[in-house]
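Dear colleague,

Following up on yesterday's call, I've attached the two folding results inline so they're easy to grep. Please treat them as preliminary; we haven't cross-checked anything against experimental data yet. The first protein's sequence and structure tokens come first.
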Amino acid sequence: MLDKVRVVAITDRRLMGDIPAAFGDAIERALRGCPPGSVLVQVREKDLDGAALLELVHIARRYARVLVNDRVDVALAASAVGVHLPERGLSVAEARALFPGLIGVSRHAPDLDSGADLVQLGPIWPTPSKPGVHPLGLDALRLRPAAKLVAVGGIDTPERAREAARAGADAVAVIRGAWRSESLVSFVTAVEAGLALR
């Protein structure tokens, strides 16, 4: 299920548009031209209640496979492919007891033995979403977990996506780059190029 994934596009309504139609349009635009299965959309809208979040997950599912951030109940209700657990969220074991799909986790230190299917490790570079947090750097990606390793943090150009893949990431997570560009094709292509350089 994760073999082809090269990019996790993390949602941000401030960049995408704060109405459901704009949210869907942004996802459709970002995925235009990307190979099937190469992009997962992680719906991470922490300020929304369950009903509003569920509506956005249903919209996102029209275009891509979807991870729901933190909310196992919403992931179940929407038949999402997976749930993504923040570092201080449910444990992987607790989530697996409730949810039959893919389990992703966030980690901010290179201790990657989480039991999850997907590990987002970062920030790799400085990022505005984590002000004051010291970046881990590319060396943190050289550790190889059993899970799919996704580099996150400061990956706002295809060049950085390629560097992260070359250093050890299987995929990259993108926020600004996903919603400020015409398509994620250049990021997908950059990850493929980085993987080929290993």
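Below is the second protein, in the same order (sequence, then structure):
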Amino acid sequence: MARIQVLQHVAFEDPGAITPWLLQRGHEISTTHLYCGELPPSVSEVDWLIIMGGPMGVHDDAELPWLGAEKAFIRACIDSGKTVLGICLGAQLIANVTGADVRRNAETEIGWFPVNPVGSHPLAKIFSGNPVVFHWHGDTFAIPAHAEHLCRSAACENQAFLLGNKVLGLQFHLETTEEGVAALCADCNDQPGQGSWIQSAADMKVKRENFPAAQALLRQILNYLERTLPPL
């Protein structure tokens, strides 16, 4: 059993399909609700850190008094050799604390779009079928120094990276459930905006056939990361 620490930035972006996988494997899950003023535990109490998404940005320190402490905690977990998974904002935070640039992407990417593998790493090969995955982001990260670039999309060059063998950043949301997509759409009053890479809320919600395939990819990635945990 590993000690999993989740950092959650807003109520409507939770671990989704990650939670049942972790529970099935017998792992212990704790969640820090940063938006409620909670602070992360000691790094020594964590085996695996999972950093969720959120509508804020990595440079919003002035508006978010907890953001600086979160960044320090993420950096400490990486320096301590913990397994770390960052999703969307979580991936951008990993990039930020490891010295990579996080900036506005040329396109806002919202909806179900394919990603394409980059390189020959085993994790890149997971995306060899150009799977359709769920996106919701306006910012993007540069690939951190010494990290493997794993996949891209037509709208965003940098979609995933692996730093060492234990720190993974995903710009997209494999964990999203039907309820999760509905919650994201509700947060924007079903009006995600307009653009070449923005789908309507109605289109996003009806694509139920995409969830099982995305969650199958998620399980492959979680299986990979689980192997990096310390032995029981």
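For the second protein, one point worth flagging: DSSP finds seven helices and ten strands in the chain.

Best wishes,
A.L.
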